[in-house]
Amino acid sequence: MIAASLPIHRPLEAKLLVVDRSGSIRHWKRSKFIDLLRPGDLLVANDAATLPASLSGQHLPSGQSIEVRLAGRRSLSADDICRFSAIVFGAGDFRMRTEDRPLSPALAPGDALALGPLRAKVEDVLGHPRLVSLYFEGSPDEIREGLSRHGRPIQYSHVSTPLALWDVWTSIAGPPVAFEPPSAGFVLDWQALASIRARGVEFATITHAAGVSSTGDPELDALLPFDEPYRIPESTALAIRRTQEHHGRITAIGTTVVRALEHAAAFDGVVRASEGLATQRISAASRLRVVDAILSGTHEPGTSHYDLLRAFTDRTTLSGVDQELDAHAYRTHEFGDSVFIERSGNRNEAAITASQEPL
Amino acid sequence: MTNDWPPNPLAGLRVAITGGTSGLGLALVRELLSRGAEIAFVARGREGVERIARQNRAAHGIVGDVSNKNDIHPIAIQIVGALGGLDALVNNASDLGPVPLALLGDTPCEDLERALATNVLGPFRLTKALLGALASSAREGRGAVVLNVSSDAAINPYPRWGAYGASKAALHHLSSIWDAELAGDGIRFLSLDPGDMDTPLHALAVPDGNASELKRPETASRELADAIASVLSGRGRSRGTGTEAVKETLYDSREPANSPSPGSEAVGG
Question: The whole model's pTM is what?
């Protein structure tokens, strides 16, 4: 696939590859994705706004330049904003491929970091020299001001111009808790929401603190996605129940929505209004209990997002998808084209088979 | 509020107010706090923001300039981050245009640009950045309302109020269109004229006016808070009625607006 290198949310020519329950593949115009939904269906999106989570600054003990990328937090509570897990790089910025970024100076608990107006301390190194737990000094309001003024959106080298916050916020962005954009949601605008209503499809949101998609280090990448806090409002839990009662389909916009809903339903298959911390990996072995279809970006094999798609359809079908994406020049990454994959009709059987395969 | 019946729709309401360190904005911060709302307020000057935040410990003070597009998202992050969501936005910060007031022919283009940036583009951008949070609040059944502070100068062509009046007219019309477009998403828009008030903005416009003849911003802030409460408690009602009724009430409560003189022109906060 080709990297989408311009921060345009809804290019007119955006493509959508559609996989139905039987595994057959069609090519669709993404602007027509609403035609794939049926009256009585429910569409669920992640309303997290994206923080400017890349903070440049200095490792004070060594005096060296660093870039900190905030990568996780334990809860979505407004006051719980002092402590983050973070990935630390040495000098440089997004223009250099993440894989080529130099390591930061060796970090030790207690090290002070100056990040623009913010001061943070390394609390702990989390089993990898790049991954740390940081504690920010100051009141929650002061920390939010420092982040929002000094931070920049986390960015990768496939987009060459610096991203602004409006480039990474979806139309429905609300609580500023995501570290990278829940980019499947770029497909939505206010016209789409009106058209969805007009079609008799319900729309609901969850808030999920989408984490980083790449760390530049295979060992760390293998740990993705990190734990992500989420919140499911009562109105969304009710909409899910209503839809299930009349056998409508539940379509998740993006992998984060799948992760949150399936985590919430893990106990007994019922999604309740809740706040939680999604810790699970979704892959071929996972049995989906809530989500019937996913609208997502295109993902490359080997990533955790790609693994998640295996929960929807089997390996053979996904290989066919990969070939079609290449053959039809689909674009990938956060501003790229999309896929719509309906959970395969024999998915439960497939999950049992898949769980016996070596992963 | 000691009475819990009828329910006070402002209790726990998450409200953001721009221009919150003086005049009508400050009165609204105090009024809404006293009625149980959770408040984030925005103003340009750090010193003023810190002073008002010290006086009102429960309120979150945010330094930012709505006329600067690079400030909008940092402001939005701080509002929604601090309040954990947003139910009401009051676009109150306003720029008068040329000071002293001037005929349009004598108005520097830069003064018109600044008035438009503060009174039209700023509220537009901030509203747009906060629309997602407001829509989520509406879906969760909390209601969502945007109050744009207007002026009778938005309707009446008062000489020497051209920059201000034209910008407020644009804001007024934007409000009506937003309201029509977002009714289905459950977000309501109000455009209300608070009347001629004893505020710093009015003093700039009419330096030799008699303050004792003007409405107290506290009075106007009570009326505006009532208007927000009324829209929220009527949120199950068919659209149109709530807004119009409130708008008319507030316009009616003003001094007669048909005989403008240098001492009686109305300004919004």
Answer: 0.92
